[in-house]
Design brief:
single chain; 141 residues; alpha+beta; 60s Ribosomal Protein L30, Chain: A; 4 strands
């Protein structure tokens, strides 16, 4: 689990630097509808108070179904504050973003492979082998 946690942190930082990260439930849904083949990984995040948000849970269910249908690995995170600290505000406006859903896109550079993404893909595959289809990954301190 610790390896997956560190790999997720590295992947988020790398994707943000490369411009391969999309944040927000609606932005992610639009992107998945237009270009699902370009999505490499999905992160769903919710705090305890979000568990009672029925609309958000419906969005999560639909996103999870879409990811499973399109062979996109997906994990959950239970700490929006840590996630926001890793990814940071929007570079365009400096405004806080919706971090409930984050998509990592395939980079435009040919032949680029992210070792953190490969670790997370292996972690997700191992989780599916024990019927944990959307594993929860804690973020490092």
């Amino acid at each position: 689990m610790q390896g997956a946690s560190k790999a997720l942190h590295e992947l988020l930082v790398s994707a943000q630097r490369r411009g391969c990260l999309t944040a927000g439930v609606y932005e992610s849904a639009k992107l998945m509808n237009v270009d699902p083949d370009n999505v490499a990984f999905c992160v769903l995040a919710a705090d305890e108070e979000d568990e009672g948000d029925i609309a958000l849970q419906i969005h999560f269910t639909l996103i999870q179904a879409f990811c499973c249908e399109n062979d996109i690995d997906i994990v959950r995170v239970n700490d929006l504050a840590k996630l926001a600290a890793i990814v940071g505000p929007s570079e365009d406006s400096g405004e806080p973003r919706d971090f409930h859903c984050i998509l990592i896109m395939n980079p435009t550079e040919e032949g680029w492979k992210d070792p953190a993404l490969e670790k997370l893909n292996s972690f997700c595959e191992a989780s599916r082998n024990v019927n944990d289809w959307v594993p929860t990954v804690p973020l490092p301190e």
